[in-house]
Amino acid sequence: MKNIQKYLEDNKDRFLNELFEWLRIPSVSSNPDSKDDMYKAANWAKDALLKAGADRATVYETEGHPVVYGEKIVDPNKPTVLVYGHYDVQPADPLDLWDSEPFEPVVRKTDLHPDGAIFGRGSCDDKGQAFMHFKAFEAMVANGFLPVNIKFMIEGEEEIGSPSLGKFCEDNKAMLANDVILVSDTSVIANDVPSITTGLRGLSYVEVEVVGANRDLHSGTYGGAVANPINILSEMISKLMDENRHITIPGFYEDVVEATAEERVLINEAPFNLDDYKKELDIDDVCGEKGYTTDERTGIRPSCDVNGIWGGFTGKGTKTVLPSKAYAKISMRLVANQKPKKIAKLFEEYFKSIAPDCVRIKVDYLHGGLPVMTPIDTPEYRAAENAMETTYGKKPIPTMEGGSIPIIALFEQILGSKSVLMGFGLNSDAIHSPNEHYGLFNFYKGIETIPYYFKYYSEMK
Amino acid sequence: MKNIQKYLEDNKDRFLNELFEWLRIPSVSSNPDSKDDMYKAANWAKDALLKAGADRATVYETEGHPVVYGEKIVDPNKPTVLVYGHYDVQPADPLDLWDSEPFEPVVRKTDLHPDGAIFGRGSCDDKGQAFMHFKAFEAMVANGFLPVNIKFMIEGEEEIGSPSLGKFCEDNKAMLANDVILVSDTSVIANDVPSITTGLRGLSYVEVEVVGANRDLHSGTYGGAVANPINILSEMISKLMDENRHITIPGFYEDVVEATAEERVLINEAPFNLDDYKKELDIDDVCGEKGYTTDERTGIRPSCDVNGIWGGFTGKGTKTVLPSKAYAKISMRLVANQKPKKIAKLFEEYFKSIAPDCVRIKVDYLHGGLPVMTPIDTPEYRAAENAMETTYGKKPIPTMEGGSIPIIALFEQILGSKSVLMGFGLNSDAIHSPNEHYGLFNFYKGIETIPYYFKYYSEMK
């Protein structure tokens, strides 16, 4: 392992420059105009895997954006680790809130990253974290230490709900066969408080349209007599939660596995300071379901957020319009055992039931993902625990993360293997926001930790 | 009068072509980039008045967009009619809903306008209607029939609440001195049901900002624990009206002069067919304050409409963002004797009082106008009544219009004269919407009617 660590130290600057190349490709999967950039980013990953030491690497076509697959089989009788990551990124807008160009990465220091952080879309989510695996793999190969087989599956549709990956897994079960899936697309609690994600919320994402009159109207001539779809949409949104911020959709909580008293105690043992949390977000108060702590609200409780709303005149100045239409994008985070499509259906039924006769409603299901729970009493998990304990000097804490990686549940269904979510980001890395960044400490700590995972995992299997 | 009517008939095509020139200038007063076009449109009006026969016409600077003034004084001892109109127009967006270019007028037939209608921004509101006065004036001068003095004041800020016109009137009281202000910026009930507007609602227009965290957040990591300003804004908007669509802002109705039972009977005597109304708007139901008819809701009752809302991700596809900010433009239509600034203040106090601690609120007052009631037992009104009866063959009905012309109330305060609102549009002319149009019938009927107004008015004074 010493050689590997020396190799990593000797090649630090090169690793960073290589990652920058990848980050410069604006592979925004939700943008229909990004097709060329998606291929560019996929091919870049394929070439990077080959250079790092893969026996083979290929860009596989799908009905959506391509999947990059690469492997190095050291011995078919040995266990296999499948590394999953994604090369697609979130849209960069609102662009005017970025302090540097989203697709021209730069290193800047911050309070939480005194050694510097890489600022750029995808720096943490997930190019930066996927790339740690490429480089750890390169170091293991270069130093003749790869104790198990390794496979890489790097997709291009994670940020839009991985619509093509299920079929890709179905179609390539043999090729993808593995004993564990290793994923770095999550966070640690803090750089001195390592943690491993053992739960992820699911997602059910819908778009709603509320239509009033057949055209925009003059708000003087018609105001007060004809439905205003923005007012109505607002009223309907207000009926999604009650005064305790409990979601009011009938049947919404039906499949929720309530956490036991013991589990709730555990969740609240993770280091958390409400004052620091509020200060960091510059808010006077948190806001969530009555009867639960902040960690519970994001870890074991579902939520309902309007991700976007628009309608009427939104330019400078004033326009006295009574608009014809109003829209909202609404997503619900789910916990075990809620199911995305069932939730979307319950949402649609309820939303339509509360619509007054003066408007017409359309609800489109955009995408979803199942919630995930991973066991912590397995060699797969313990290998990650030992690896982090070695490099951080502290045993990592198992945590529930509020975000979703919808494909994790599908992996288990299709490939039959559990995932280990050993991520190295921080929640404050602004991964879906302007100024996304990834600490240099985190980037290098990840590359340092991953080879230990292979070491411990091979020793335990 | 025969000569005048022949003159009008002989010059119909030229009048239309001249109006088209004016309509091609995109004088959108709310657009800060329109400055040059505002001057262009003002100068065009000045030249048009001179060509029509004004003794003098001038473009007056203001702190905002310029005011065009022109006059022809036939005898200082005779009464004076001041014609008011505006050369500014509403923004044209959403552009994609226009069937032809908003600033390239064309004539197309419609069901309500079998003779054709002029499609283009400002065709009805108000260039087309102001221009009728230019041409009626030209015809009267050309045929040696101008029985009273005439003055024109054509402003460029009506659509943004006429912020500079009050001062202009104050500064030029002597120049503007008049016995009646004649305004064509309203509608008739139908082309075979003439009407004159005797009431206008006022307006109080605000913009609100709701701020949650100091940056956009990942809706997975934070959703359910940190305030979503869109959800909160929606909830706050839903609290502006109760289940009877009665506005809940404390004190909002304090100054409302309730209509008497007799007045309500009169209002509901105007021809109105609810089924036709719903069909024309393609709605299954109307929507307004309980206990009032549609004509009452827009004529004698205040209203509260969200004119625009925006926040979060509004592009194609999905983004799981928990936004930092959400915005809405909200306007309230007022009736006698509500006061715009007082209402805005009540709104702000209430809106802030219902905001939870987890968000911060900003309320900006954008503009407003007082409601108007004009008496119908005056020579000024009866002249309009007789003029319309002559050209339409039916006595016009006095009606309350839901829209606002904020400056009308100011005229009375500053210049001491009442206005007569003799407009020729239709409510279906889409004046603040895509595909604004103005019937050729209406345009020519207006030009035909206006000289009769001068005739009857001079006979009665």
Structure explained in plain terms:
Chain A is an alpha+beta fold and 461 residues long. Chain A has 2 domains: 2-200 and 371-460, 3-Layer(aba) Sandwich (Aminopeptidase); 202-256 and 302-368, Alpha-Beta Plaits, CATH 3.30.70. Chain A contains 15 helices and 18 strands. In chain A, strands 1-2-6-3-7-17 form a 6-stranded mixed sheet, sandwiched between helices. The longest helix of chain A is centred in the C-terminal third of the chain and has 21 residues, at 440-460. At the A-B interface, strand 10, helix 7, helix 8, helix 11 and strand 11 of A face strand 10, helix 7, helix 10, strand 11 and strand 12 of B.
Describe this protein with a few key phrases.
homodimer, alpha+beta, four-stranded antiparallel sheet, Aminopeptidase, Alpha-Beta Plaits, 2 domains, 34% helix, 18 strands, six-stranded mixed sheet, 461 residues
